Design the sequence.
């Protein structure tokens, strides 16, 4: 199976920092795989995702996305990825639909037209479908600054999916969404993954969202601490191995693991 994300010995040291924020990280993600990159605050998740999506320069190591090198073939990488950032990145002076339209043009989905009506049918259909899924049909043509924070988040989600990317990077995608929208979003992402073979790279502090992933890596203080399936993690990462039963959820395994490692590293 093709590797969609290949990371070897990735290092990032911010200017003026005493030590690297990401320190020799290596992992790979196969095509169509659902991958979770978990870790406590400040572990290095956003730094890693920013390098993988070409928005931040690394200081060492090799990174390929969909077979393209993030330094030498950054434009190709961007054509193949969709991103939902932790921080909002919308233009508040445009309408919701205009924000998506510019993104679609930028990502090579279609040429620019000066109004929604004049855009190609496949674009209009895709926007309508996505807006229905996250429930913002009524807000599509309103200026962004009039929308609530939650609505703006939903808009970013639509924007990241509009060009049907091969690899979808989700940096805490459901932060600020209500329960119904969270469920709707995950349903859509699951469908997209299954129908289009989209590879999904997720970081989240809601560990339950990672319960059904294929592979989990935990990063702690800039280094990969463990990489396995959620089932293996639940089986092997019990803090107290008696009685010998699996921990019930990935969140239980994660919390035990982090607690144990914080003590070891303290
Ligand atoms: N622009 C920057 N300049 C200097 N240090 C930075 C910068 N951005 C992040 N850091 C540091 O790098 C480390 C990793 O930060 P990062 O944001 O990647 O962590 P994270 O795992 O995404 O955390 P969170 O879960 O809180 O979002 C932290 O110690 C942080 O303070």
Sequence:
């Amino acid at each position: 199976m093709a590797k969609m994300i290949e990371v070897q010995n990735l290092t990032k040291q911010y200017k003026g920092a005493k030590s690297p924020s990401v320190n020799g990280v290596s992992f790979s993600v196969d095509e169509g795989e659902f991958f979770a990159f978990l870790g406590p605050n400040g572990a290095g998740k956003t730094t890693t995702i920013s390098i993988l999506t070409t928005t931040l320069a690394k200081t060492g190591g090799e990174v390929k996305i969909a077979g393209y090198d993030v330094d030498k073939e950054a434009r190709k990488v961007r054509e193949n990825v969709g991103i939902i950032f932790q921080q909002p990145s919308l233009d508040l002076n445009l309408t919701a639909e205009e924000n998506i339209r510019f993104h679609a043009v930028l990502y090579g989905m279609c040429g620019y037209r000066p109004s929604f009506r004049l855009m190609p049918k496949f674009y209009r259909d895709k926007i309508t479908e996505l807006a229905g899924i996250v429930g913002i049909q009524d807000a599509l043509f309103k200026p962004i600054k009039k929308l609530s924070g939650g609505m703006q988040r939903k808009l970013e989600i639509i924007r990241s999916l509009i060009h049907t990317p091969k690899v979808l990077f989700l940096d805490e995608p459901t932060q600020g969404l209500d329960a119904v929208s969270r469920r709707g979003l995950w349903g859509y992402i699951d469908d997209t993954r299954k129908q289009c073979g989209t590879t999904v790279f997720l970081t989240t502090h809601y560990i339950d969202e990672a319960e059904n992933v294929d592979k989990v890596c935990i990063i702690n203080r800039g280094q990969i601490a463990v990489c396995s399936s959620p089932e293996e993690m639940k089986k092997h990462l019990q803090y107290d191995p008696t009685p010998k039963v699996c921990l019930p959820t990935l969140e239980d395994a994660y919390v035990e693991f982090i607690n144990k490692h914080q003590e070891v590293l303290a």
